[in-house]
Amino acid sequence: MNPDIYQIRSSRSRQFTTFDPVTRSKTKRIMPGAPASTIVESDTPGIINRMWLTFPGWFWRHWETGAGNDPSTLKKLIIRIYWDGEAYPSVECPVGDFFGIGHCEYKHYVSRYLGMSSGGASLQAADRQPNEHVQSARYGSSIYAMNGGVRVNRKSYNGTYEGERNAYIAFPLGGMGAGMFALEGTGAMSHFSLHNHPGLLNEPLVFSAIYVKGSSGSVARVLEGAVPMRKVLGTRTIRTPGPGSGLYGRHYGLPRFAESTFQARFPFGTIELRDPNVPANVTITGWSPFIPLAADDSSLPAAGLEFTFTNPTDEPLELVYSFNAAQFMAAQGADNHRVLRAEAGTGFVLDQPAVDGRPWERGAFSAATDHPNATVDCSWFRGGWFDPLTMIWEAIETGQCLEKPPVTEGAPSPGASLFVPLELQPKESRTVRLMLSWFVPETNFTIGVPATAQEAEADMTNPELRFHKPWYAGKFADLSDLSAYWSRNYTRLREESLRFADSLYGTTMPAEAVEAIAANLCILKSPTVLRQADGRLWGWEGAGDEIGSCHGTCTHVWNYAQAVPHLFPELERGIRESEFNEGQDAQGHQNFRMPLPIQPADHDFHAASDGQLGGIMKAYREWRIGGDTEWLRTIWPNVKASLHYCMEKWDPDETGVLSEPHHNTYDIEFWGPNGMCSSIYIGALKAAYLMAEALGDDQADKYKALYRKGRVYLELELFNGRYFEQKILWEGLRTPAPTSGEHAWNVNYSSEALALMESEGPKYQYGKGCLSDGVIGAWFAEMCGLGDILDREMVTLHLLSVYEHNLKRDLSAHVNPQRSGYALGNEGGLLLCTWPNGGRLSLPFVYSNEVWTGVEYQVASHLLSLGRVEEGLDIVRTCRDRYDGRTRNPFNEYECGFWYARAMASYGLIQGWSGIRYDACDRTLYVSPKVSGDYSSFLCTAGGYGIAGMKDGKPYVDVKAGRIEIERVVME
Predict the structure, then answer these.
(1) CA separation (Å) from 593 to 157, 366, 451?
(2) How far apart are CA 458 and CA 884, in angstroms?
(3) How far apart are CA 376 and CA 420, in angstroms?
(4) Given a cut of 50, is residue 129 above it in pLDDT?
(5) Pair 127, 159: CB distance under 8 Å
(6) Which residues, at least 6 apart from 21, have a Cβ–Cβ distance to it below 8 Å?
(7) Looking at residue 763, what is its pLDDT?
């Protein structure tokens, strides 16, 4: 909530009533379907202080004694409140839940924002900014009875996290593939992952503090809010004992601010700190460069923390800001670490030189400010027990600004601090900029199997292929070089990052969609992503606590990720080049997991059908986004070989569908044609014939004929009138029964499983199921600019069936013997598969009962692209409501690992909702509005980015950076 509203002390009240002076009646009956009725209209900011609504079926009998009493009325009746001009409600929930009386019980309670008595409720907050027009709330058709499930909005999207919703915030700061730390919603710093691998439990002793002196005395506080209880009872790490040891090594016992709130505008996160005992207000803004089309600047191992101090009093204040850090870069067991003065700005460097035989232990971290009055203490008190922290806090709470050089004798310094003294006049604000950067140039990390033992031996002579080396280590000589660049370009990088944020958030895109898009851009800041010395991007599927989860830019997971090809197209082209070169052999077989460092892969495991075929569609996408036909020409022979491998392996009879067993993202093989993988196949065939035609390849007609053949099969044989199914086949194929060989590697056919196979077929299929991914190839085609590959009405019916049957509002009664942590209890989510027509297999595919955010966004953006806007956004809201800060971090959607790459499917919401796509090959802007009237959306092309949409019935593009050359506009 905005403090300028809820902390207001001087105001006037106004009462709005339904009293009719003609009939002398206060009763205004609003019936379902009735026209909207304006009850309140105000031109000034304010708080809705009382809202009284009375409904038939409960409490109405006080007016009509004969009226019936239906105790479920307040659950059936939905209230929707719209601000004028908004397409979507800011409130949508059962009336009883809105007033806190959902069970029709008499309660009396008062909290900060809500007071309730037996007869009504007092709402003590309004989600409006100061000086913004407070518009009329519309009722009438907005209140109606609803049968079945209901959705309750418990959060405001892109809003402020506070109280219990600020318990799990951890906002990544860092560069793409360069490591990160997280800025928590309280202001704490954690998740230090600077050594080219995840360190999600790494929370060293690092904190900022403030000393404030006024006429009534002085006070000192850590610049953080209250410690969340999850951390008090948290996890033990290798270097820091856990709760059983009293949280030794933490700074949790130091005084801190009473209240903290967090709000994000990626890549910026802002914290407000307030405390009645501190006569200064504090705002912390954390950010790290994120600039579309500027991959190098967006990959810097750097972050900025800006502390703004405001004096709200009528007297001057003296302040001392300090940043304090233990020597957390020290290698385990090493004694050659040191604290040095920073060369760029005023600050310190925590330095760990190379250790004999372990060059990967080398690393350094810099903290510096450009404030002219800053001082640095490079020599913390050396002692045992709690001595260093005790002594530095003594300096902080007495307002000292220590200046100590690095130690030159004895044991190394255990830490360092920098201090900035400030004087604030009444109502004055000042900002301290803290510039953080790090440099860990070597690793001992490699993963994946090279092509042959001989090649592996040869690779050992090439240091670039032996161990991963981060991109920035090839760009900068050392930390001093990097920090100097960061310091020189800080203002420019901030302005360009802010320009992007203003563009992304400055549209009419629905708030829930923007939140989902921005939240998952955090994945590119996380340890899920690495960038090697030659600049190529490589990714895990997600991040574990100490190591990544499932290596190799896995093709069938990264298929879903739509952000990188638009924001950093050269990086996505690099992924395609790796897949079709190092990842592919002469026969066209692709290893769907790329080794790191990137080099020729082994080919001892079966290919992933959805990943390999999706790569063909993505080659088409990269061509159309970049507009470089010569680039396409260079990779086309390998793209063609990949397609022919898929045809020969999974469709040897050229039926246009995949009949032979084919591996996929569910980590099993599907046996027989199915809507999921065969839709990707026909999408790849369409992409292939379009690329072949452009390049003059005589195979174009063959690919086109096979595409048409496969499309007819899917529409006639797999569509059941409501959705696309799987036709399970396991006999009469070229592949033997799945009880031995490579296709039995993870299915464990026991005697009872063999008996089950006789009646149902191979384990882990979906058959008659309604699969959320059931027409994913049509979604890929939409995202890649391929147009329709299946009958549009059939695809729509499939997705509406998914929406009807797979989207659950409450999972309390849902049976999930699989991985339930993604969504459970009274949370909602989109199930991967259901069987609305019966026919559920005894052992369906292994993840069928789960909820994956990447699939939720895939379905949602596909619905949007087909004009089913409310259904698509409903799925987005259901997903984001799980990540509300109470139990999950809103900036870390996970699946098999944190910051899971599949979740970047949320970027597809932009194209889905806006219907806008730019084709660089023919310099054409395609516009297919999904909403009526004027609207605006974010648009990023290979040449520039900006805001695009419809204005006064005409399409427009407002370029914010770079150039977007448009020769024609096509309205679809």
Answers:
(1) 36, 35, 12
(2) 50
(3) 9
(4) no
(5) yes
(6) none
(7) 94
Cα–Cα distance for residue pair 338/346, rounded to 1 Å? 17
- What are the CA-CA distances from residue 168 to residues 11, 185, 265, 828, 888 (Å)? 35, 7, 17, 19, 6
pLDDT in tens, 717-753: 999 999 999 999 999 999 988 876 655 556 678 889 8
129-135 long-range Cβ contacts below 8 angstroms, 24+ apart: 129/2, 129/45, 130/2, 130/4, 130/5, 130/45, 131/45, 132/45, 133/43, 134/42, 134/43, 134/44, 134/45, 134/46, 135/41, 135/83, 135/84, 135/85
Measured CA to CA, the distance from residue 182 to residue 33 in angstroms comes to: 48
- Give the residue with greater pLDDT, 932 vs 112: 932
Which amino acid would we find at residue 707? Y
d(CA 629, CA 290): 28
Strands (E), 186-225: 189-193, 206-214, 217-222
Spatial strand order in the sheet of 189-193: 170-174, 180-184, 189-193
Q: What is the pLDDT of residues 158-216, one digit of tens each?
A: 999 999 999 999 999 999 999 999 999 999 999 999 999 999 999 999 999 999 999 88
Sheet holding 944-951, edge to edge: 935-940, 944-951, 954-962
Burial (0-12, 13-18, 19+ Cβ within 10 Å), 767? buried
Note if the bond before 267 is cis, omega within 30 degrees.
yes
728, 761 in Cβ contact below 8 A? yes
Closest alpha carbon to 571 in 632, 525, 526, 530? 530
Length of the chain in terms of residues written: 972
Look up residue 509 and give its DSSP letter.
Answer: S
d(CA 605, CA 592): 9
Alpha helices in 883-970 (DSSP H): 908-914
- The pLDDT > 70 percentage for the chain reads 83
Strand ranges, E, within 143-188? 143-145, 161-162, 170-174, 180-184
Who contacts 488 (Cβ-Cβ below 8 Å, separation ≥6)? none
Closest to 308 in 3D by CA, of 185, 188, 212, 429? 429
Using DSSP's 3-state secondary structure scheme, residue 646 falls into helix
756: DSSP letter: H
CA distances from 646 to 72, 357, 401, 618, 657 (A): 56, 46, 68, 16, 11
pTM of the model: 0.85
Which residue's structure tokens are 């690793």? 443
